[in-house]
C-alpha cells in the first residue's frame, strides 16, 4: 500500500509540475489584425494554450498607448508596443503628459520585454505612371506621408527631410489620411508618391499594386551612412533595416521594381515588442518565451512578411536611449536558445 501511495504521489507531482501554468489565466492587449504586432501576440496566445502553459485572453484592436500603461499598473499581463511609447512614458510627455515625469518614470520602470518585432519599414514608393525619378524628384510633389498625427507622420516627414532635404508644406505637399483609408488614397492616384512604414507585403502595397506597376526605392547608401540618419535611427523605437533586394523581389513578385545602387535595400524601421510587468513569475516567463522561440519558424510562416519583421532578432532597437530591457527570465531563454543579447538589454 505504501508503494502505491508513493507512486500516486510521484505521478501527481509530475502532473502538477508539468501543468503548473495550465490553469493560469493571463490577459493581453494588441493591435488590430494585419501586422507583426498582432501576429506576434496571437501566436504566443496559441502556443501558450496548446503547450498547456497558460490561457491568454487576447483583446485585439487596442490603443497601445493605454495597453502598456495597463501592464505597468498591473491591470494587464502582456501588451505589444512600439518602443517609443515606453520612452515617452518614462519622461511623462506626449500621450503620458498627465502622468508627469516622476510617475511616468516609475510606471515605465515596471515594464519588461519578452520578444521583438518590427512594426514597419519606411521607404519611398510610387506608381510607375507617375514618372517619379526617386528621392531627388520629390520637390513640389504630393506625398502621402502618414496618418493625420502620430509617430508615423513624424518619422515620414523626418525621412523625407533627411534624404531629400525637403520639408512638408514648403518643399512638397504632404497628404495624410487614417490608416484604414490608406490603400484607397494610394489607389486613387492622388498622391504622386508615398513614404510610409510598410511590411513586405502590406495591403497598402498589394491593393494599389493590383491597379498598376510600382517602384520602391531604397534609401541612398550615402544618406543611410550619414551622421544625421545614423543619429535618427538610434532614437527609441527606430533602428537601421537592410535586406538583400533579391529576397524582397521574390516576396513581392511581378509588378514591383526595387531600385538600389547595389544589391542591398536600406531603410529604417519602427521597432517594438511584447512587454510584461517586471513582477511576472520567472518560471512562467521562461515557459512562454521558450515555447515562443521553439516555434518562431512556424510564426514566420504564418504571414508573407514573416521573415522580414525580426521575430528572431532580440537585440533590434535595444539599449541606447531605449529604456525597455528584457525580463531576466526572457533574456535567459533567448540566450539558452543561442541568441545574442547584450547585458545593456537585460534588467537586473
CATH architecture designation of the largest domain: 3-Layer(aba) Sandwich
CATH level 1 name of the largest domain: Alpha Beta
Largest sheet geometry: 12 strands, mixed
The count of β-strands is 12
Any idea how many domains?
Answer: 2
Rg for CA atoms: 22 Å
Looking at the structure, what is the overall shape?
Answer: globular
Percentage of β-strand residues: 15-25%
Oligomerization state: single chain
CATH superfamily of the largest domain: Periplasmic binding protein-like II
Descriptive report:
The chain has 348 residues and is an alpha/beta fold. The protein has two domains: 2-118 and 271-345, D-Maltodextrin-Binding Protein, domain 2; 121-266, Periplasmic binding protein-like II (D-Maltodextrin-Binding Protein, domain 2), CATH 3.40.190. The protein is built from 14 helices and twelve strands. Strands 1, 2, 3, 4, 5, 6, 7, 8, 9, 10, 11 and 12 form a twelve-stranded mixed β-sheet that branches. Strand 1 (25-29), helix 2 and strand 2 (55-59) form a beta-alpha-beta unit. The protein is globular and about 60 Å long.
Amino acid at each position: 500500500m505504501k508503494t502505491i501511495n508513493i507512486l500516486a504521489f510521484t505521478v501527481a507531482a509530475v502532473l502538477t509540475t508539468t501543468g503548473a501554468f495550465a490553469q493560469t489565466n493571463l490577459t493581453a492587449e494588441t493591435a488590430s489584425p494585419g501586422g507583426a504586432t498582432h501576429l506576434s501576440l496571437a501566436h504566443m496566445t496559441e502556443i501558450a494554450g496548446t503547450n498547456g502553459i497558460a490561457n491568454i485572453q487576447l483583446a485585439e484592436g487596442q490603443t497601445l498607448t493605454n495597453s502598456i500603461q495597463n501592464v505597468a499598473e498591473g491591470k494587464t499581463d502582456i501588451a505589444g508596443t512600439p518602443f517609443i511609447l515606453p520612452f515617452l512614458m518614462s519622461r511623462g510627455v506626449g500621450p503620458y503628459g498627465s502622468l508627469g515625469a516622476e510617475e511616468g518614470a516609475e510606471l515605465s520602470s515596471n515594464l519588461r520585454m519578452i520578444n521583438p518585432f518590427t512594426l514597419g519599414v519606411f521607404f519611398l514608393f510610387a506608381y510607375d505612371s507617375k514618372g517619379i525619378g526617386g528621392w531627388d524628384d520629390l520637390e513640389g510633389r504630393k506625398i502621402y506621408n502618414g496618418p493625420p498625427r502620430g509617430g508615423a507622420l513624424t518619422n515620414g516627414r523626418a525621412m523625407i527631410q533627411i534624404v531629400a532635404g525637403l520639408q512638408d508644406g514648403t518643399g512638397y505637399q504632404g497628404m495624410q489620411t487614417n490608416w484604414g483609408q490608406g490603400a484607397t488614397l494610394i489607389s486613387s492616384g492622388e498622391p504622386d508618391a508615398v513614404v510610409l512604414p510598410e511590411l513586405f507585403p502590406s495591403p497598402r502595397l498589394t491593393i494599389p499594386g493590383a491597379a498598376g506597376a510600382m517602384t520602391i526605392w531604397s534609401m541612398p547608401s550615402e544618406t543611410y551612412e550619414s551622421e544625421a540618419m545614423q543619429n535618427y535611427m538610434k532614437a527609441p523605437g527606430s533602428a537601421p533595416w537592410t535586406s538583400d533586394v533579391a529576397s524582397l523581389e521574390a516576396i513581392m513578385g511581378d509588378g514591383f521594381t526595387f531600385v538600389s545602387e547595389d544589391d542591398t535595400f536600406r531603410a529604417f524601421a519602427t521597432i517594438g515588442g511584447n512587454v510584461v510587468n517586471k513582477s511576472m513569475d520567472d518560471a512562467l516567463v521562461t515557459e512562454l518565451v521558450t515555447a515562443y522561440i521553439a516555434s518562431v519558424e512556424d510564426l514566420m510562416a504564418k504571414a508573407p512578411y514573416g521573415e522580414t519583421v525580426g521575430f528572431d532578432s532580440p537585440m533590434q532597437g535595444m539599449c541606447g536611449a531605449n529604456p525597455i530591457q528584457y525580463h531576466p527570465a526572457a533574456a535567459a531563454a533567448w540566450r539558452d536558445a543561442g541568441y545574442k543579447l547584450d547585458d545593456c538589454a537585460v534588467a537586473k
